[in-house]
Specification:
CATH topology of the largest domain: outer membrane lipoprotein receptor (LolB), chain A
Largest sheet: 11 strands, antiparallel
Structural class: alpha+beta
Radius of gyration: 23 Å
Shape: globular
Helix content: 25-40%
Length: 566
C-alpha cells in the first residue's frame, strides 16, 4: 500500500501498514519486510534532524555500535538507511505498551513492579554502557513493557547534543541543565526519576523552573517506601560523583534492597504485576500527548520524543533469516515472528546507503569443512567474547542469558553470566560462573557450587553453554547437508542423526529434535571479517507451529579469563 512519509520516500523493500507515533524527531510506522514478511518499526527522521550535520555524524557512528548491542532489555536496532530523499532507522517491532501509557492509564505500579522495571532498565543501560553508548534521554516513552513484563529500552542516541534536558525535562540530571554532556551518571539519574514516578505516580520534580528544581530542590525520598529511599537518594544525588558508579553497581544495590524488604521472590512477583498492568493499559485509550515543556533552561529547537515501538540490530536477521524477537500481543507473551519466509533469499541491496552490511544471494553451495576450520582458527586467536542468548518456542520454558565466555584448550568453555527463565525454578535473574563441570550460582553474597547439568540454574547454565559455544556453530557447519552463503550469512540444514553423534552440543540438538519431532535443524550464522561468529540462529520445527528457536549474538572478541569464584 502507498504510504508517503518524507517527501514521498520510503525505505525500499518494505510495505507500510500504519503509523505508530509522531513527533518532532520524525514519524514511526509499522512495516513488513517484503521478502520475509517480518514486521519491523521504521522511524523516518524529521528534516530538522537530517539538516543537523553534527547530530547526523554522531548518529551514524552510534548506529554502527547500536547494531552490535544485543540485550533482552534493549529493543533491537537493525539498520540506519540514508538516501538523498530522507533517512530512517529500521528497528525491532515490539508490540508492547510504553511506560508513559501505562502510568497514564494505571497510576503508580507498586514497589515490586517498580523494582522489576528499574532492574530491566538498568540491565539495558549496562549493556549499552559496556559498548560506550549513552542513552541521553531515558524517559517513560522510551521504555516499553512487553507481554512477559520485560522493560525494553528504545530511542538510544536520538537526542541532539545539548538538547537532552529539554527533550525530557522531568528526568534530566542537574548537570544537563548546566550544559554538560550526557553520561552514564545522567542515564542513572533519569532511570531513578522513572523509578520514583512508578512508585508515586509523578516525577520527583515538577514546576515552572525545572532547571532550578533539579539543581536545588530537596530529593523527595520520604514519599517512597522506607526500604527504597536509599535507592532514590543515591540515584537522584545532585552531584554525579555521588550517584552509583555504574548501572551494574546500582543494580546490585537494588537487588539487596529488594531482597531485604520483599524477600527472594520479589522479582517474579514484580514481573507478574508489570505484565498485568501492561495488559490492562493496552485496553485503555491512548492518553493525549503532553504539551511541549515551558521549563527554563537554554532555549533551543529540539526533537521531542514520540512513542516508538522498536529499538535496535543489524538487518541481516530481518532480511536473511527473519528470526526476529517480537513481543507478542501484550496478553500473549513474547514470540518469534517467522512468517514462512525464513528460507527465502535476502532482499536485494537498494541504492540507499546503509550503515550495516546488505547481503546478496550467492549462487552455489559452500564446503562446510574449511569454513569450520577457519572459525576455529579465528577464535583460537581471540578466545572469548561477550554473548547474549535467548531460547523460545514450544516444549520448554523460554530462557535467556548474557555475559562473557572464555575458550579453554581441550576443555569446555568457561562462562560468567546472568541468566533467567520463565520456569518456577529459574525466574529470578541469577549470576553464575561455569568452569569445567561445576556451576557456581550466587545466592546473596555467597557462591554455591553444583554439578553442571543439574536441576534449576545448573541445568539452565549447561543449556546456555551448549547452545552458545563456538562448538555449537562448528558442529552445525560440519554436519550440514545443505549450506549456502548470502553476504556474511551462512544458511543451511543439518540432520539430527548426524548432529546427535557429536560430543557437547550434540546433546542439545538431540533434545530439540525429541521435543519437536523433527529430523533436521535449520540454522544461520553470521561471521565478521575475521571469521568469528557475530550471530547464530537455529530452529527445530517449522516456521509456524511446534518449534524451538535459539539465538545467540557475539561481540567484543578477545581473551576472557574466567575463574571459579572464591
Amino acid at each position: 500500500m502507498a504510504f508517503t512519509v518524507v517527501n514521498g520516500w520510503t525505505v525500499p523493500g518494505f510495505t507500510h501498514e500504519r503509523e505508530l507515533g509522531d513527533g518532532a524527531a520524525g514519524r514511526v510506522v509499522l512495516a513488513v519486510d517484503d521478502m520475509t514478511s517480518t514486521k519491523v518499526a521504521i522511524k523516518y527522521l524529521a528534516g530538522a534532524l537530517r539538516a543537523d550535520e553534527a547530530f547526523m555524524a554522531r548518529f551514524r557512528a552510534a548506529a554502527r555500535t547500536l547494531s552490535q548491542l544485543e540485550d533482552p532489555n534493549v529493543a533491537d536496532f537493525y539498520d540506519f538507511v540514508e538516501a538523498p530523499e530522507g533517512a530512517a532507522v529500521v528497528m525491532q517491532y515490539v508490540d508492547g505498551v510504553a511506560l508513559r501509557r501505562m502510568l497514564a492509564a494505571q497510576g503508580p505500579t507498586g514497589p515490586l513492579a517498580a523494582l522489576s522495571l528499574l532492574g530491566g532498565v538498568l540491565l539495558g543501560l549496562a549493556a549499552a554502557h559496556a559498548l560506550d553508548v549513552v542513552h541521553g534521554a531515558v524517559r517513560p516513552s522510551a521504555v516499553l513493557v512487553d507481554g512477559e513484563g520485560n522493560a525494553r529500552l528504545t530511542d538510544f542516541a536520538t537526542a541532539p547534543a545539548g538538547a537532552e534536558a529539554q527533550l525530557a525535562p522531568a528526568y534530566a540530571a542537574p548537570e544537563l541543565w548546566e550544559g554538560a554532556s550526557a553520561t552514564v551518571a545522567t542515564d542513572l539519574y533519569a532511570a531513578t526519576a522513572i523509578f520514583f514516578e512508578c512508585l508515586t505516580g509523578r516525577p520527583p520534580f515538577a514546576g515552572r523552573n525545572m532547571a532550578r528544581l533539579h539543581r536545588e530542590a530537596p530529593i523527595p525520598a520520604e514519599e517512597v517506601p522506607g526500604p527504597l529511599r536509599a535507592l532514590i537518594e543515591q540515584g537522584l544525588a545532585k552531584d554525579p560523583e555521588s550517584r552509583p558508579k555504574s548501572a551494574a553497581d546500582y543494580l546490585g544495590a537494588l537487588e539487596e534492597a529488594a531482597v531485604s524488604a520483599y524477600g527472594p521472590s520479589w522479582e517474579a512477583q514484580g514481573r507478574g504485576r508489570l505484565t498485568e498492568l501492561a495488559a490492562q493499559a493496552a485496553l485503555q485509550p491512548e492518553p493525549p500527548r503532553s504539551k511541549p515543556s515551558r521549563s527554563s533552561g537554554r532555549n533551543q529547537v529540539i526533537a521531542t520524543g514520540q512513542q516508538p515501538a522498536g529499538g535496535s540490530r543489524s538487518r541481516w536477521i530481518a532480511g536473511g533469516v527473519a528470526a526476529l524477537v517480537v513481543a507478542g500481543a501484550v496478553a500473549g507473551g513474547v514470540a518469534f515472528a517467522n512468517s514462512g519466509g525464513d528460507d527465502g533469499p535476502p532482499p536485494t541491496p537498494s541504492p540507499a546507503q546503509s550503515s550495516t552490511p546488505q547481503p546478496s544471494q550467492a549462487p552455489g553451495g559452500v564446503d562446510p569443512a574449511p569454513l569450520a576450520a577457519r572459525i576455529v582458527q579465528a577464535t583460537d586467536q581471540a578466545p572469548g567474547a561477550r554473548f547474549a542468548y535467548r531460547r523460545t518456542g514450544c516444549c520448554g520454558a523460554p530462557a535467556a542469558a548474557q555475559g562473557d565466555f572464555g575458550l579453554v584448550k581441550g576443555a569446555e568453555p568457561s562462562y560468567a553470566m546472568r541468566m533467567w527463565g520463565t520456569g518456577k525454578a529459574v525466574r529470578k535473574r541469577m549470576q553464575a560462573v561455569v568452569v569445567g563441570d561445576r556451576v557456581y550460582v550466587r545466592a546473596g553474597k555467597k557462591w554455591r557450587p553444583a554439578p553442571a547439568g543439574g536441576r534449576g540454574y545448573p541445568g539452565l547454565a549447561e543449556q546456555v553453554r551448549r547452545g552458545s559455544s563456538v562448538s555449537a556453530v562448528t558442529t552445525l557447519l560440519e554436519a550440514a547437508s545443505t549450506l549456502s552463503k548470502a553476504g556474511g550469512v551462512y544458511k543451511g540444514e543439518a540432520p539430527v542423526a548426524k548432529l546427535a553423534q557429536r560430543p557437547g552440543s550434540g546433546a542439545l540438538y538431540a533434545e530439540m529434535a525429541r521435543a519437536t519431532g523433527v529430523q533436521q535443524i535449520s540454522f544461520a550464522v553470521r561471521l565478521d571479517g575475521s571469521y568469528r561468529p557475530v550471530k547464530l540462529w537455529l530452529r527445530a520445527g517449522p516456521a509456524k507451529g511446534r518449534n524451538q528457536i535459539i539465538t545467540t549474538s557475539y561481540s567484543s572478541w578477545g581473551r576472557k579469563a574466567i575463574k571459579p569464584p572464591r
